[in-house]
Recover the amino acids of this structure.
């Protein structure tokens, strides 16, 4: 069961990934992350960058809530 506090601590992200052709038979996976509540969009080119990116976006979202 959802409680009012639970909604304040949850965030909805959209993550889109695609394979980019680099030429010479090389490809690279890239991605776009969007935080729906703020509309903030960030891009990544390496899977290891995804989690730190999400953590940064969450931290900024929490900071924004505290300031408003």
């Amino acid at each position: 069961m959802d409680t009012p506090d639970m909604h304040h601590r949850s965030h909805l992200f959209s993550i889109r990934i695609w394979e980019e052709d680099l030429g010479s038979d090389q490809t690279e996976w890239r991605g776009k992350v969007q935080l729906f509540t703020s509309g903030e969009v960030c891009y990544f080119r390496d899977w290891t960058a995804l989690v730190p990116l999400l953590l940064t976006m969450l931290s900024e979202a929490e900071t924004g809530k505290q300031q408003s």
User: Anything to note?
Assistant: Residues 19 and 25 are 12 Å apart (CA to CA). The helical segments are 4-8, 50-67.
